[in-house]
Design a protein that fits this description.
CATH architecture: 3-Layer(aba) Sandwich
Order of helices and strands: HEEHHHHEEHEHEHEEH
Largest sheet: 8 strands, mixed
CATH class: Alpha Beta
Shape: globular
Helix content: 25-40%
Radius of gyration: 16 Å
Distance between the termini: 40 Å
Number of helices: 9
CATH topology: Aminopeptidase
Length: 193
């Protein structure tokens, strides 16, 4: 098996999770439906739910092709440390302070996540989100943005528990109405000092 030390160098670890960056080669394997090669390359088990997300894969592959330095900020597999199974994904939509957030009247960085259904209600999203916020604050990010469907009550509750406050809304081409939430890194740091 090849040594993928570049991914391991960017791995983020928490008590139960490894957040592993999904690089161009991995995303290409997935888009080509080379499931076993992709799993071997990631050094993890990949669920069918992941392979249904080809639009997300293609979007993040394009982002990496345009900006290779996006990798540590980009999409990550949420891997269960004990089983090696991919149980969801999380990532920042861009590197910090993109133009589109300035157009919304803010700066910072937006992130999104998904935990697959059989792993929900176990604190996985909380643990992954906390790990990503910790990483970004160490890099000097000052503000975090989440866009959440008004019907997604668990994500809204999670965001509010972290101190995210609603500041606007937008219409997403694929997802429809989304409420925008913002968290100042300083507030998060005081809660986790």
């Amino acid at each position: 098996m090849e040594n993928h030390s570049h991914e391991l160098a960017f791995d983020l670890r928490s008590e139960r999770l490894i957040l592993r960056p999904l690089d161009s080669h991995f995303l290409t394997l997935c888009l080509l439906a080379e499931q076993q090669n992709a799993a071997d390359y990631l050094n993890g088990q990949l669920p069918d739910a992941w392979f249904a997300q080809w639009r997300l894969m293609a979007m993040r592959l394009k982002d990496l092709q345009q900006d290779p330095d996006y990798l540590p900020w980009g999409l990550r597999a949420i891997l269960h440390r004990d089983s090696g199974e991919m149980i969801g994904h999380i990532g920042f939509h861009t590197r910090p302070n993109p133009d589109y957030l300035a157009a919304l009247g803010t700066h910072g960085i937006e992130l999104g996540y998904e935990v697959y259904p059989q792993w929900r209600r176990q604190g996985i999203a909380r643990e992954a989100l906390s790990t990503m916020l910790g990483f970004a604050t160490q890099q000097g990010v000052e503000r975090f943005i989440l866009s959440i469907s008004p019907d997604n009550h668990p994500s809204t509750a999670l965001a509010r528990s972290f101190g995210f406050q609603q500041f606007g809304e937008q219409i997403d081409e694929e997802d429809g109405l989304e409420l925008l939430y913002r968290l100042e890194a300083e507030l998060w740091l005081t809660q986790h000092a």
